[in-house]
Write a structure and sequence with these properties.
The protein has five helices and no strands. The protein is mainly α and about 130 residues long. The protein has one domain.
Length: about 130
Amino acid sequence: MPRIANLYFKTAIIFLILGISIGLHMSISGNHAATGAHAHANLLGWVTMAIFGGYHALNPQKAARRLAMVQYAVYTFGVTVLIPSLYLMLSGNAAMEPIVAASSLIAFAGVLLFAVIIFSSSEQVTAAASPAR
């Protein structure tokens, strides 16, 4: 399995643990104000990252590209900042809103980079390649 796919699966499981922890905390406390953070941890963290990992596992040529690692770093950074800042904002700290907004845009940039990966050709281009005849 490509390294990037493995990274995505490991990161995804961390976000699943975080998402379930937020859910348990809300259930035990009876305060469900942070439902949005719980949902984002599970959907952007667990589900989306697992899908990204699955795509890279099925497309090792694309997984080997530098862009795949850049996309992983951008998306993971965005989601990693988004979840706790959203949790704090929804729990009453309105000062977190600009951080939520900025991290959302960073995560979205990661999604756009993933779209570039998907729509790019899977052929390996080399300078020494001869034209097909």
